[in-house]
Amino acid sequence: xxxxxxxxxxxxxxxxxxxxxxxxxxxxxxxxxxxxxxxxxxxxxxxxxxxxxxxxxxxxxxxxxxxxxxxxxxxxxxxxxxxxxxxxxxxxxxxxxxxxxxxxxxxxxxxxxxxxxxxxxxxxxxxxxxxxxxxxxxxxxxxxxxxxxxxxxxxxxxxxxxxxxxxxxxxxxxxxxxxxxxxxxxxxxxxxxxxxxxxxxxxxxxxxxxxxxxxxxxxxxxxxxxxxxxxxxxxxxxxxxxx
Length: 243
Known about the structure:
Elements: H1 4-13, H2 16-35, H3 40-60, H4 67-121, H5 128-154, H6 156-179, H7 181-189, H8 197-234
Helix pairs in contact: 3-4, 3-6, 4-5, 4-6
């Protein structure tokens, strides 16, 4: 007599293609969960190469355009964007963050004065004791914020080294993923079963849906960031880029 577990297995996994697809999913999730931090540069490079591959394919479809030339053009534009962000946006954000930290004591002083004036004008709603208690809370939070900033500055050296490694390693991986896409896919197909029609079908559907979603989400982030930044600038708000 067949057990319920055997019947369930025969119902869903009797097809070797379904079993192969399930094993691929399990192995992929296990790799990300167990070694996600170690493989973070590799995963980031795969995602970036996936996003850039659509542009490479479109350029490669042009008459007389070799894929290697298309890869070179797209990769050059990508690196120009990265360098522009590093040279323009990052220094601007760091500058505004430094200005904000320098103005924190003045902000706290103005806040204390406003609280004391509030207690003087509306003593029935906000007493002087409540104002002093709130001021003590603000001072304690400011002290803890300073300690956190100090701890972050001590650990910043390791973060900078890791960032430098990422800035060198990830672009190299992206370039070779784009350049050797056919070789990499051919190597991966060696580990698939001979009958892999279901895996190919699922991959095509996931590739189309995931590609549209990721590119759409990326454009959404850029549009929201740009509109928010311009709005803050027009309103005359300080630290528009930081916000």
